[in-house]
Fold this protein.
Amino acid sequence: MSDLTLYTYWRSTAAYRVRIALALKGLETTMIPVNLLMGHQRADDFVQTNPQRMVPVLEAHGVRLTQSLAILDYLEAIYPSPSLLPSHPLQAARVREIAQLIACDIHPLNVPRVTTYLTEHFGMNEAQKLAWMRHWMHEGLSALESLLAASQADGFCVGQSPTIADCCLIPLLYSARRFGVPLENFTHALRVEQHCENLDGFIRAKPERQSDAV
């Protein structure tokens, strides 16, 4: 039995970030699927696990952590090799800058609880909600592309090896394609993706390779 347990959902981009990090670090992890479409996150037992009714949740060494960026920081601190954070302070700050832009600014505007609220309280139909998601993803990706143009080196977001920033970027691109966001102009982001896509950690974390994928 692994010391690490991750509550996950195959199509959750937040959980996808954590799966990449776990795989890159070679950490054996017990995966517990939580079907968000079927509302399993609202079941009493899971609400006790995470009152926010969200994934991911990591159980490790007797503690329970939510929020993907907090989990990534914890994994980096407890399992520092291979490192997903540069040792140089400015590069480390760039990694966090990119990760937070994705996880804190782009992703929250496109999650199901937000789009459901848009329907229930503002009467948006599916086409309007899709336009909303595409708009905010495109806005965020445009800003991200400028950051990558300034920081990219050797194919990764920052530096010469995968970092937490790459763990966040690859799921974002997956989500953007899912919702039909045109990506051809985001050449730096696509170059990073191309560099990452053949690495084993990224391959094993892919949504379609998860046990709960449908």
